[in-house]
């Protein structure tokens, strides 16, 4: 099944939102297949957001992502890349709908608590950037037979 890379950014960790955010993905029915707490270096943050290099906010974004612990995760499930982005909400919390993570839990674009891969190629690239293959755990969740038709 499809996998996506999700990260709780330093603001989410510092504000005590780790369990709240994980709860939303868990409740939906997605399966956690990798998780760790890391403080990314500036170089690493730059790699993660390489597509935004040259944007006026890039240095601030890179410095912020490397300013403290980040919860790096891989979530698995049918449609998790696209729907995970729906759970997260629009990039700017000013536009995120209530009910979304950013809509409910954030107020400014530079401190929007969470990152989610924006497509299948970026999901694969980001999972490979943040995790070694052996850190991805394959297992059967008992809930799966209640979440999916055979
Ligand atoms: P991510 O899941 O973090 O990748 O966010 P996104 O996919 O919704 O947006 P995008 O990839 O375009 O931007 C990455 C991050 O850069 C955003 O989550 C914001 O934190 C930050 N960002 C994007 N646009 C702006 C902006 O106009 N100003 C500032 N300060 N930050 C921005
Ligand atoms: Mg993005």
TrEMBL record:
Gene Ontology BP annotations: CTP biosynthetic process; GTP biosynthetic process; UTP biosynthetic process
Statement: the UniProt record of this protein carries the keyword Glycoprotein: no
Keywords per UniProt: ATP-binding, Kinase, Magnesium, Metal-binding, Nucleotide metabolism, Nucleotide-binding, Transferase
Oligomeric form and interacting partners: Homohexamer.
Parent-protein residues present: 83 to 232 of 232
GO terms of molecular function: ATP binding; metal ion binding; nucleoside diphosphate kinase activity
UniProt record similarity statement: Belongs to the NDK family.
Organism in which the protein naturally occurs: Ceratopteris richardii
Principal subcellular localisation of the protein: plastid
Reactions catalysed: a 2'-deoxyribonucleoside 5'-diphosphate + ATP = a 2'-deoxyribonucleoside 5'-triphosphate + ADP; a ribonucleoside 5'-diphosphate + ATP = a ribonucleoside 5'-triphosphate + ADP
Protein name per its UniProtKB record: Nucleoside diphosphate kinase
Cofactor: Mg(2+)
Enzyme class per UniProt: transferase
Chain's role: Major role in the synthesis of nucleoside triphosphates other than ATP. The ATP gamma phosphate is transferred to the NDP beta phosphate via a ping-pong mechanism, using a phosphorylated active-site intermediate. Shows the highest specificity towards GDP.
GO cellular component, one term: chloroplast thylakoid lumen
Annotated ATP binding sites: 9, 57, 85, 91, 102, 112
Top-rank taxon: Eukaryota
Subcellular location: Plastid, Chloroplast thylakoid lumen
Domain Nucleoside diphosphate kinase-like, residue spans: 1-138
Keyword Metal-binding attached: yes
Active site: 115 (pros-phosphohistidine intermediate)
EC number: 2.7.4.6
């Amino acid at each position: 099944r499809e996998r996506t890379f999700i990260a709780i950014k330093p603001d989410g960790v510092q504000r005590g939102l780790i369990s709240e955010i994980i709860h939303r993905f868990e409740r939906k029915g997605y399966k956690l297949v990798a998780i760790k707490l890391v403080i990314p270096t500036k170089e690493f943050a730059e790699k993660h957001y390489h597509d935004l290099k040259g944007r006026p906010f890039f240095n601030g974004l890179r410095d912020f992502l490397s300013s403290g612990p980040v919860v790096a995760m891989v979530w698995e499930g049918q449609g998790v890349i696209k729907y995970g982005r729906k759970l997260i909400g629009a990039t700017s919390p000013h536009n995120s709908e209530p009910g979304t993570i950013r809509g409910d839990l954030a107020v400014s674009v530079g401190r929007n608590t969470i990152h989610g891969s924006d497509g299948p190629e970026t999901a694969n690239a980001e999972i490979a950037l943040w995790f070694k293959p052996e850190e991805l755990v394959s297992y059967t969740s008992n809930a799966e037979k209640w979440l999916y038709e055979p």
